Amino acid sequence: MNMRVVMLPIIMLALSIFLLISCTEQIEKPAPLSIIQSIKSSGKLKVLTRNAPTTYYEGSHGLAGIEYDLIKSFAKHLNVQPEFIIKDNTSDILRSLSNGESHIAAAGLTQTQSRSKNFSFGPVYQEVQQQLVCRRGSVLPKSTEDLIDTELWVAAATSYVDSLKKFQKILPELRWTETTEYDTEQLLEQVWQKKIPCTVADSNIVSINRRYYPEIVIAFNFNQPEPLAWLLPENTPDLQQALKVWFDQYKADGKLARTVERYYGFVDLFNYVDLQSFKKSMVKRLPKYKQHFQNAAEKNGLSWTLLAAQSYQESHWKSRAKSPTGVRGMMMLTLNTAKELGISNRINAKNSIFGGAKYMKKLRKRIPEQVSEPDRTWFALAAYNVGMGHIYDARSLAKKLKKNPNKWHDLASVLPLLSQKKYYKKLKYGYARGNEPVRYVKRIRDYHDILSREVAESDQSENTVSLMLETP
Predict the structure, then answer these.
(1) Cα atoms in the Cβ-side hemisphere of radius 13 Å centred on 301
(2) Which of 19, 81, 236, 305 is 20 to 30 Å apart from 111, CA to CA?
(3) Tens digits of per-residue pLDDT, 210-231?
């Protein structure tokens, strides 16, 4: 028998087995998951961020921050849990994202040309402007040319470095110090402490922090407004698309505007003299009444720091305060309100504080159930100032104007309309100076934010001392 004839079936069999094994291996080898599939499969959205008041922080009622709120909403949209990875500075965040440690970097990052070379971007959710910040009382630079003679520190790997490099092409003598030891917020504190002359920061960071450090001042704006956006790994179109779908709906529902209002809606009333007075009063006057605020707040289910902030707005913590309209005391109660609350002596600090707290509790109960916190508290504060009837009117008007009557952001835009005849003549309670309750709530939120920070820092210091004393 011809050997070729014998070998041919064997060769064909071997070839068939080889092809079968190859096909089986190809079938069994799974295709790589897309980034969205990977997120949903793991049930976790990994997010890089910084611990700062403009990003992510532990607030009086738990985790908070504009980045925290936005990420939480997107994670809910994907039906997964967010996992926050905290880094000290922008350099570490960019490095970690490049190394594949997370899916998103949400840390108040500017969308720049240099970053677009290595990363993709999510939707723009806010615009900021870079500002040169120095200390009040010093000789302030007036232009970029003046920076040649100014000692300038900036956080490394930030968009500020990109801007300085552009200026350096025109001004070769321009120099600055880049640091990874301090982030932007810490550099602002360094300016306040006179340890460095000037730094650069985004306008949102400045607006929040100059309330804590009133002596810092904006010398000039560095550039035009720039967009903030989340940074994503390169070539992640499915993640970008998922973000777009979520963000478009989030913005259309008015949730973005309300989130921005929650964190920045009270910071535009900066007044250096007033804040200096408030800080002095926290040291000189508040300790005398602190226990009354704490006891009254606990009894009525309120925040004592918010109650104290409201009292400062009302009377500057002066027990004998009196207005031209006849309201008196720490919480500036009217005579009728005081009688209703069973208070005979309005200038007695304890009575006034407990009366004001009791009245706030009543007002909060009168707010419709559809209004949730923190909006419920802002509604009650506004009612304390302008009267509940006008709050009801504003809610009715909000509905007519197709705004959300249960959200403070929308109500704050409607209240000023109560002073316009074409609106108030059709309302039950008529004319009101609607701008006043809006400013009233803003100032209280501002004072409360500053006071809460001071209390938290004080408590942390006391805990540290206690631990040191307890350590053998």
Answers:
(1) 8
(2) 81
(3) 988 999 999 999 989 999 999 9
